[in-house]
Amino acid sequence: MTGAAKRLLLEILGWLMLLGGIAALVLPGPGLLLLFGGLAVLSQQYAWAERWVDPVQLRALRSAAQGVETWPRIVASGLGALAIGCFGVLWIISPPAPEWWPLKASYWLLGGPWTGVTLLVSCLIALALLVYSYRRFHGKPEAVAALEGEIDEADEEWSEHRPHRHD
After folding, report:
1. Would you say 150 and 58 are in contact if contact means Cβ atoms under 8 Å apart?
2. Are 144 and 63 in contact (CB under 8 A)?
């Protein structure tokens, strides 16, 4: 593969991951993880993306730490991930539209089996991240404090390097 083709492929991958991450912030899926991955790929080509990698990574880790602070959060996160997986199985099985469905049957379970596959992948990623977060942060206030310190340092560095506008 030529250098130009590799660069183009990585750039397309980075932009797709970035857009997918933005969408996954409101849709089921690992939004901050995809944003981080997209920025990490794009940071090889763009200085602006490189400046955003650490802040997004640290906020993703903060979200992970907050998600396992209490047992109700852990249970809710696990149940949410399993619910996404159940919907994935439903899409893969693709049962016929029920009688109560008000639209045409062709609008039932849009996207077909591949939507189910992506939902199952999202479920597995969410469960893996939950286990990772639990092992890294649950019951470890020193790890959370260290992370908060890193975020504060990154915020200070960001504000020092950010161009200031004069009003």
Report:
1. yes
2. no
- pLDDT score, position 127: 92
Kind and range of the H or E run holding 153: helix 141-161
Write the pLDDT tens digit of every residue in 14-66: 999 999 889 888 876 677 788 888 999 999 989 889 888 888 888 888 888 88
Angle (CA) 40-76-118 rounded to 5° is 50
Rounded to a whole number of angstroms, the CA Rg of the chain reads 20
pLDDT of 106 > 90? The answer is: no
Q: Where are the chain's structural domains? A: 1-49, 62-167
Q: What angle do CA 80, 86, 87 make, to 5 degrees?
A: 95
